């Protein structure tokens, strides 16, 4: 289940990509399939070990071009261990809502991107996320959970003030919003609830089969209740200095 539009990012052979906060690796695997040199970057050692195993399995099965390179790297998004201007594309999908010092993380995403390169950032959309927070504290108030709800315009401004040029936005995963509302309403751990279990089966079927009926339904509903918002930026050849230089308060988010 991809949130980022890979065609818009132009990811293909010889593209150097980093997927920051890669989680289980869904975007990293797609970049690898397309022939990119991909670094899956996260602080979760256990999850990254599984990502590395999947990279190996994909290579063995011929699911990625032989010329492509894939690596799983453990580290901190606030201190990316790469020189300035390393990557053609930087992806940060569903990570910034977890990071207290989000502006410091954004500065790092921009720093490692090449001039002319593309940045894709996705976060939970304000309205679906707000409903989840109202229905359940358990949804977000836990270790490593969501610590803020973004207005897309506010996130765009945070990235633009690092000298980036906004290019596009879209919404995604509308069919997932009601699922999370149901989970929040009945209890996050109540997986045996028949409504939750039934809806989950529907989502799995949709992800595996991608029938036209659900694709059409999601496309129609995304502008209204899309669970995620994706924002795309380009790094100009001459990046302006940030309008609001980082202050000590940035460290607290």
From TrEMBL:
| CDD domains in the cross-refs | AdoMet_MTases (cd02440)
MF (Gene Ontology): methyltransferase activity
Q: Does the keyword Transferase apply?
A: yes
Signal peptide per UniProt: none
Keyword list, A-Z = Methyltransferase, Transferase
Q: One Pfam family for this entry, by name? A: Methyltransf_11
Q: Which GO terms describe its biological process?
A: methylation
- Indicate the segments forming the Methyltransferase type domain, all copies: 18-120
UniProt-listed SUPFAM superfamilies = S-adenosyl-L-methionine-dependent methyltransferases
| PANTHER family found in the cross-reference section | METHYLTRANSFERASE
- The entry's protein name is Class I SAM-dependent methyltransferase
- Organism of derivation: Mycolicibacterium komossense
